[in-house]
Amino acid sequence: MTPDIESLIRAASGRPDEIRAALDKLGLARVAELAVAEWTLRLDPPSNPLEIHIGLSVSDGRETADHTWVLRAGEPVRVLPGLHPGCEVRLRYDAEELITELWGPSRGRSSPSRAYELATAMDTHFPPRERQPSIAAASATLTAALSARAPDLGALAVRYGSDKWGQTHWFTQHYERHFAPLREEPVRLLEIGVGGYENEESGGGSLKMWRRYFPRASVFGLDYFDKSRFSGPRLTVVRGDQNDPAQLDALAKEHGPFDIVIDDGSHINEHVLTSFRALFPYVRSGGFYVIEDLWTSYLPGYGGDDRDFGVPTTMLGLLKTLLDDLHHQERDSDGEPSRDTAGEPSATEAGLVGMHVYHNIAFLEKGRNAEGGIPRWMPRAPHW
Ligand SMILES: C[S@@+](CC[C@H](N)C(=O)[O-])C[C@H]1O[C@@H](n2cnc3c(N)ncnc32)[C@H](O)[C@@H]1O
Q: Basic and acidic residues composition bias: which ranges (predicted)?
């Protein structure tokens, strides 16, 4: 499913003929099926107390593909094939416009391009009053989901059951600060740690949160346990061990490079350092490698150290080392700046351009760290 959606996301950024070509390649039925799945996963929980049927007709000028949503507060949203005879509302879309609206950049679009048809519109007698608020609420739920703007990330964390906001962690404010500029990009995001540990039914909260926050992203999750039940549109879950560099390399070769990698896995210091060394090279320029739960740096049970804070084997030890890598062009190990030595810079020396460390979470910014050291003619000691 995800490769088909990725082809639509690519096409939706392009010219109309590229969108048409993608539509022709996948066929109307497949595109409508993917669009309904995408639209449905973006829905806020319905608030309409009465059950409401809303139809969607997608046309490519030759054929039409129909589906019906069934919405009611407190119940999971259902999708039925075809148009249900009891549809209170029917939305009509041109297939190319729907692709653009769902998967293209918003480009400041303020209103959707659909036709909204109320089943009772042509009646001359007043429709049943008790159904009107529910029809309005269900319509609002559906149309809000097409907006590129999602509720704030903390609210999404709570909604999907991620612990990145509330009680123990206050991370989403930092994520929004760094990720907001990427919001409309077709980012590739990998998170280590799907959640739920041995319970294969449990977890997936943050992956769903990311998929909703980045409407054009391809999201990947890695977990030690089988979490394949959470795979779906734009979301691929892989089983593997974050402490095995060969597995990480194979994963990154198949699904990377990534714009964002987040480590919310075991929080065992050795594992975090292994994953960072294996995956940082697969982060794209302009992207981020994020490490959560830095507090286990101080826990011997996690391979941390509660006495010697300078050891390089903990996450905070790694960050302290990386500060020096960031400044490798200034280092003067044998009396000369290291940029003049023959050795090639390491992956982190060459590719780390920013470090943003907050309480318990670090954002490492990837780029080209080659702006040059301070010139040799600058005095190496105060001369006044
Ligand atoms: C804190 S939970 C992730 C929570 C999730 N990211 C969220 O915010 O909703 C940590 C997950 O890491 C997984 N994990 C533990 N050790 C791992 C390893 N060595 N490799 C991959 N995943 C691991 C656990 O199975 C667990 O599901």
A: 328-342
Instruction: Calculate the alpha carbon distances from 261 to 115, 229, 279, 339, 368 in Å.
Output: 40, 21, 8, 29, 18
3-state SS, residue 40: helix
Q: How far is CA 56 from CA 40, 134, 215, 216, in A?
A: 12, 18, 20, 21
Ligand 1 center to residue 175 CA distance, Å? 19
Please write the tens of the pLDDT for every residue from 168-206. Answer: 888 998 999 999 999 989 999 999 999 999 999 999 999
Looking at residue 148, its pLDDT comes to 60
The residues, ordered by sequence, that sit 6+ positions from 104 with a Cβ below 8 Å of its Cβ are 9, 12, 13, 216
Rounded distance from Cα 264 to ligand 1 centre (Å): 6
Query: Which of 174, 175, 192, 194 to mutate for ligand 1's pocket (most ligand atoms within 8 Å of CB)?
Result: 194
What is the distance between the alpha carbons of residues 375 and 378, in angstroms, rounded to a whole number? Answer: 6
The DSSP secondary-structure symbol of 232 reads B
Distance of alpha carbon 152 from alpha carbon 191, whole angstroms: 19
Q: 45 CB contacts (<8 Å, ≥6 apart)?
A: 73, 159
Could you give the angle at the alpha carbon of 163 between the alpha carbons of 157 and 165, nearest 5°? 60
**Other beta carbons less than 10 A from residue 168's beta carbon:** 11
Instruction: Please list the active-site residues.
Output: 267
Residue 112's closest CA among 126, 94, 137, 132? 94
In three-state secondary structure terms, 180 is helix
311-332: pLDDT as tens digits:
999 999 999 999 999 999 998 6
Alpha helices in the chain (DSSP H): 2-12, 16-26, 28-41, 95-103, 132-144, 153-160, 172-179, 205-213, 245-255, 269-279, 315-326, 347-351
Of the residues 171, 197, 220, 296, which should be mutated to test ligand 1's pocket, given the most ligand atoms within 8 Å of the CB?
197
Q: Report all structural domains of the chain as residue ranges with CATH numbers, in order of start.
A: 2-144 (3.30.1050.30), 153-366 (3.40.50.150)
- Identity of the residue numbered 16: P
pLDDT in tens, 58-67: 999 999 999 9
307 pLDDT band (50/70/90 cuts)? Answer: very high
pLDDT at 98: 94
